[in-house]
Amino acid sequence: MYIVHGNIKTMAERDFADGYLEIRDGKIAALGDMKDCPQTEGQVLDVAGSLVMPGIIEAHCHMGITEEKKGMEGDDCNENVNPITPYLRAVDAINPMDAAFRDAMQAGITAAMIGPGSANVVGGQFAFVKTHGRCIDDMVMKAPAAMKVAFGENPKVNYSGQGVSPSTRMAIAALLREELTKAEAYRKKREKNPDEEMDFRYECWLPVLRGEIPLKAHAHRADDILTAVRIAKEFGLRMTLDHCSEGHLIMEELKAAGFPAIVGPDMASRNKIEVQNMAFKTAGLLAGHGILTAVTTDHPVSKIQFLPICAGLAVKAGMSPEEGLRSITINPAKICGVDDRVGSLAPGKDADIAVFTGNPMEVFTKTLYTLIDGEIVYSSEESDTSF
Questions:
Q1: Cβ atoms of 369 and 105 closer than 8 Å
Q2: For the stretch 198-208, what's the b/e string if a residue is b when 16 or more beta carbons lie within 10 angstroms of its beta carbon?
Q3: What is the CB neighbour count within 10 angstroms for residue 129?
């Protein structure tokens, strides 16, 4: 398959104002200027100057776990009875039939990091998935992809009324340290004796402790962000700072810490004390300070299809237009550890591609085509948007 006459934005080294893209076996086989395009065979998609770019990536959401319009029956986001649940796996709760997946494809979103919510100190394991499919096992790119931990109001409020810890920020930090200490002891025991019987309760921590996947830290307030940094440094762990609403107040400290930030959902109400300083300017300020930054909707807190618009509002608040596009393509790919396959257009990468009438960060822009693994999964010519 060929896409021809595209304004190709690769999010890599070079763009092509009038370019072509060759797709073979679900991968990008070649791309370049139209003058260098070989004689095309098979399916040809002439996009007549439209913007061709990598599929958009959501770095943090609960799509398919908190389903729309289904109430308690469709809400599997939080196991609210135990503050420490690292062994929960997002893949066991993601429903690809959730309408949000269709909304994502219609917005040019081809992949998302999906996992448990933030009611627990340790919520469980995220998965990085493609947005097209009916069987989640076929959609997964990486699982586990991160381990969810949470600081601040959410676990504190959830458990304070139950008469158990945590009811303070001190207890949240203490419970996490206790869990990590036990997990580290288990890791050492397993390494010393590989034949040691597996303990399901702690086996899930091994990819985190080995540095294969990061902690995914829900933290809005500056002091909670710094507590997350403190604990990650104590245990020598990788980490992403998710939400990071007051990150712009501690930029020097965050730059020194070296952890990436996933900022948002700024298109939401300030319905908690800890998000009072939430603003679209944060993403641009962090990115401008040299911190690897992505933008998130935190779907369903704000809707998944508004992700490119959220990036546009970050641009309106000061982020550069180029960084705005990076914040929803190559940056989340790097943060989620999948940039070897997605996030930019280059030979050998997955053919996850979005074609737009213009810049997707502008509200009037329409999605013309969304391709995942080289297959057209959405076309603006479609009249039926059902599954």
A1: no
A2: eeeebebbbbb
A3: 27
Mean pLDDT of 353-369: 98
**Which residue has 């931990």 as its token pair?**
149
| Range in 162-166, 172-176, 183-187, 340-344 the model is least confident about | 162-166
Cα atoms in the 13 Å half-sphere on the side-chain side of 299: 27
Which of 13, 23, 11 lies closest to 55 in space, CA to CA? 11
Q: Residue 318: what residue type? A: G
Is-above-0.90 flag for pTM?
yes
For residues 354 and 52, give the distance between their C-alpha atoms in angstroms, rounded to a whole number: 6
**Within 13 Å and on the Cβ side, how many CA atoms surround 43?**
9
Residues found in the chain: 387
pLDDT at residue 27 is higher than 70: yes
Q: What is the predicted pLDDT for the residue at 386?
A: 45
The answer to whether 361 and 325 have CB atoms below 8 angstroms apart is yes
Residues 168, 152: Cα–Cα separation, whole Å = 8
Give the tens place of pLDDT for each residue, 193-219. 988 889 999 999 999 999 999 999 999
Q: In terms of Cα–Cα distance, which of 249, 320, 215, 364 is closest to 331?
A: 320
